[in-house]
Request: fold
Amino acid sequence: MITETILDVQFTNTTMNELVDYLTLRIDEMKRTFVVTANPEIVMYAKQDTAFRDIIKRADVVTPDGIGIIIAGKLLKMPLKERVTGYDLLHRLLSASEKKDYRIYFLGASAETIEKAVEKARTLYPKAQIVGYHDGYFSDEEAIVSDLQRLVPDIIFVGLGSPKQEKWINDHLSDFQQGLFIGVGGCFDVLAGTVKRAPIIWQKMNIEWLYRLIQEPSRWRRMMALPAFLMMFSKSVIESNELLRIKKRIKDRAQNRCTA
Ligand code: UDP
Reply:
């Protein structure tokens, strides 16, 4: 798929519909796939941590999960087609699973939350086969891997928070021949109803982050990544504009020389 590099992260430039088609095709072809749903916090973390940046580079798909990324793309003249959030992708893939008989596994969140999330998913998508689940506070990594190898799910939603979930997927991907592994952060909490997603109007106004901050004030420290992200990207805009100006000046000079 076509990508755009925004602030050193290669984003897949796709609509949600195109992405769901692409991912379901990969599942049908029994290919192994690693999907990152990247918000500005992830971009900032990748900037600071080279090992994490390498993990993100290894992903097959990186979606822009945050309006900040979309704005950055526009201003850097590398517009991305649309925002693709982990939460929306989770629903779209569960819906596709009903038609395609995909086998689903949920990994992450507290024991109570993951049970509620599975229950909710089974209510919303009764034909989807959730073949297994486990909370995200495990110490026996091998037990989880064996469970997954035994169940052979087509889609594994990993909600351990970032960067833990991307590191976990990267560490274990080679243990599997097939499967779509996707990091979904706190989506199980939203699905279970433990954490509420912002009402549509807040989402449309692009202030979902503010709603989240009001719900979970303890996140303020993590959210400081947002202003840092904006500063970093303003610098990139200035640099890319400067580069364009220099290129134009060189071109103009060359043309002048030819016509002189
Ligand atoms: N979590 C987990 N295991 C851990 C740490 C976190 O399963 O060792 C879960 C946590 O219970 C929550 C999710 O990971 O469900 C993190 O949610 P958050 O909204 O912080 O993730 P983000 O989307 O911001 O990365």
About this structure: The longest strand covers residues 32-38. The first helix runs from residue 16 to 28. Residues 3-239 form one domain.
